[in-house]
Amino acid sequence: MIGLGRMGGNILRRVMRAGHQGVAFDRDDVAVATLVTEGATGAGSLAEFVAMLDAPRCIWMMLPAGEITEATLRELHALLSPGDTIIEGGNSNWKDSARRGAEASGLGLQYLDIGTSGGVWGLERGYCLMIGGDAAVVARIDPLLAALVSGAGTALPTNGREARDARPVQGYVHCGPNGAGHYVKMVHNGIEYGMMQAMAEGLDLMRSAPFALDLPDIAEAWRRGSVVSSWLLDLTAQALAYDPDLAEYSGHVSDSGEGRWTVDAAVEQAVPVPVLAAALFARFRSRQEASFADKALSAMRRGFGGHLEPRKE
Question: N or C: which end of the chain has fewer CB within 10 A?
């Protein structure tokens, strides 16, 4: 694992718990040392990291999108051997992933773009993985993927896909060639924006109702049997139970970039996505003024991803 942040470190922990051996590298020596105490082998440089792995190597990168990912890939290309596999699990633009796959193939390397969802809870709950790349490579690393995902049997008993082809429901899906995994993750995050915005606006409306509504109690009731029950609602109910006014949140809501790419893709493909676009623009507006809905969005982001928005002074 290259990149031991909120998700990279926990991904490595989860696969080690499943019996796999892990090698850890990060520019932060403290992060590496922490994983070493938990059973990983630590590397002090990318060259040392590569040398510690047996061929054919399987390397997972969990780095921020942009130049740090590009620079790390350039260095890895010079160090790896034909047949090695690079997994890029960060939130990269799908067009970059398609290009990187072609570049890796030209060097005899395998490249998978794996959109990874699960946030800071993935260590315990498991992750949802959306994969782009060669199907044979995906099949070869199935034991690794199986250790990470939330497992089979999580779908409804009457799931139409199971009835159609009898394939088991699992927590990862091979979406197509390079770029497809990050494309699906991009749309996933765009949908996430819309779901969060709808919930936050509804809470804001109830807070302004001509009744003294108990939002923590309502959120708890909705968790039990309501058609809007969800993990996002679970996190929101937890935040409201702790602080009904969400006073510790500023209402300044950031965006990771994937919401923007989703809207860009919709424009390029002439597909109407008014809800997803409005949710993105609402985040932009939140940086100008704060509402209770904005605070609810911040609470949800902190709950599932550990994102710390600027706090109210």
Answer: C
